């Protein structure tokens, strides 16, 4: 006779849903001895827990999970998309407003890329939005050095192999030439590490600016570098089909962060599209502690 399935959910999943960390990071915290269940330190994530169990993380009781929430954030150039950085570089979480809860990023943008980064307090929502099966198109405004022609971009539309790794076909539009550069609009449905930069290098052009302007139905719109804006609960429910979202009033206007990074010049407008506003903002001092666990 098969053993009965344990009641409850895996401890790492519960920590992730509560916004403590991603599931993988929660597993590392467990292995480091930072989590207790019913007064006992656990060292393995292979444990199911229920609402009756008493859980602490770094000595603090685990709070009941909040409804899933989602924010738009304009990541400036020069910030790392991680909870901490071994080189001591500033992270996106060092710049968030003081009243933001602990959040996680949906995917990443590399150090020299900018634009839309989604933030959430819910690990389950983070995983859902990152899955390739979601099939959401992610659009980028890309400035490249050189003057490629439309036929030069055709390999990207068909799918290209770079260093033995096959990239899926991209939606690529040549918008305009501007001096020694050209502006493109690129759409991906399954992003890989530095995929656009690597693909452009493979056809002989170099990316010198990359801005993500949308992620599925969510758009950068008028956000400026460093600004953050919460998605209204009703919009989040409609777009994602969530049954549990906070019935709160409309989100307040985007708040100025404690620290921002100076932007560069305004990108060339795309044909038939409204470009993001990237007016530079003054540098300030580094903000307080990270909003994600170390």
TrEMBL record:
<dbReference type="InterPro" id="IPR018496">
    <property type="entry name" value="PsdUridine_synth_RsuA/RluB_CS"/>
</dbReference>
<dbReference type="InterPro" id="IPR002942">
    <property type="entry name" value="S4_RNA-bd"/>
</dbReference>
<dbReference type="InterPro" id="IPR050343">
    <property type="entry name" value="RsuA_PseudoU_synthase"/>
</dbReference>
<dbReference type="InterPro" id="IPR006145">
    <property type="entry name" value="PsdUridine_synth_RsuA/RluA"/>
</dbReference>
<dbReference type="Pfam" id="PF00849">
    <property type="entry name" value="PseudoU_synth_2"/>
</dbReference>
<feature type="domain" description="RNA-binding S4">
    <location>
        <begin position="9"/>
        <end position="67"/>
    </location>
</feature>
<dbReference type="InterPro" id="IPR020103">
    <property type="entry name" value="PsdUridine_synth_cat_dom_sf"/>
</dbReference>
<dbReference type="InterPro" id="IPR036986">
    <property type="entry name" value="S4_RNA-bd_sf"/>
</dbReference>
<dbReference type="Pfam" id="PF01479">
    <property type="entry name" value="S4"/>
</dbReference>
<dbReference type="GO" id="GO:0003723">
    <property type="term" value="F:RNA binding"/>
</dbReference>
<feature type="compositionally biased region" description="Low complexity">
    <location>
        <begin position="267"/>
        <end position="284"/>
    </location>
</feature>
<feature type="region of interest" description="Disordered">
    <location>
        <begin position="242"/>
        <end position="294"/>
    </location>
</feature>
<keyword id="KW-0694">RNA-binding</keyword>
<protein>
    <recommendedName>
        <fullName>Pseudouridine synthase</fullName>
        <ecNumber>5.4.99.-</ecNumber>
    </recommendedName>
</protein>
<dbReference type="InterPro" id="IPR000748">
    <property type="entry name" value="PsdUridine_synth_RsuA/RluB/E/F"/>
</dbReference>
<keyword id="KW-0413">Isomerase</keyword>
<dbReference type="InterPro" id="IPR020094">
    <property type="entry name" value="TruA/RsuA/RluB/E/F_N"/>
</dbReference>
<comment type="similarity">
    <text>Belongs to the pseudouridine synthase RsuA family.</text>
</comment>
<dbReference type="GO" id="GO:0120159">
    <property type="term" value="F:rRNA pseudouridine synthase activity"/>
</dbReference>
<dbReference type="InterPro" id="IPR042092">
    <property type="entry name" value="PsdUridine_s_RsuA/RluB/E/F_cat"/>
</dbReference>
<dbReference type="GO" id="GO:0000455">
    <property type="term" value="P:enzyme-directed rRNA pseudouridine synthesis"/>
</dbReference>
């Amino acid at each position: 006779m098969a053993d009965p399935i344990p009641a409850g959910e895996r401890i790492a999943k519960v920590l992730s849903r509560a916004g403590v960390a991603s599931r993988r990071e929660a597993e590392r915290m467990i292995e480091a001895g930072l989590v207790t269940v019913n007064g006992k330190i656990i060292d393995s994530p292979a444990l199911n827990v229920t609402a009756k169990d008493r859980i602490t993380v770094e000595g603090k009781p685990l709070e009941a999970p909040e409804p899933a929430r989602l924010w738009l954030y304009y990541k400036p150039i020069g910030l790392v998309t991680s909870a901490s950085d071994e080189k001591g570089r500033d992270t996106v979480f060092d710049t968030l407003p003081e009243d933001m809860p602990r959040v996680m990023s949906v995917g990443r943008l590399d150090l020299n890329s900018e634009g839309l980064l989604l933030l959430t307090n819910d690990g389950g929502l983070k995983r859902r939005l990152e899955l390739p099966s979601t099939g959401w198109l992610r659009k980028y405004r890309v400035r490249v050095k050189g003057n490629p022609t439309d036929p030069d971009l055709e390999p990207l539309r068909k799918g290209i192999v770079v260093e033995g790794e096959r990239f899926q076909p991209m939606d690529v539009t040549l918008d305009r030439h501007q001096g020694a550069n050209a502006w493109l609009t690129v759409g991906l449905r399954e992003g890989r590490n530095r995929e656009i930069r690597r693909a452009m290098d493979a056809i002989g052009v170099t990316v010198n600016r990359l801005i993500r302007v949308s992620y599925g139905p969510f758009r950068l719109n008028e956000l400026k570098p460093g600004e953050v804006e919460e998605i209204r609960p009703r919009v989040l429910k409609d777009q994602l089909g969530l049954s549990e979202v906070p019935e709160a009033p409309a989100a307040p206007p985007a708040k100025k962060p404690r620290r921002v990074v100076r932007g560069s010049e305004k990108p060339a407008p795309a044909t038939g599209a409204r470009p993001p506003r990237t007016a530079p903002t003054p540098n300030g001092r580094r903000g307080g502690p990270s909003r994600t666990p170390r």
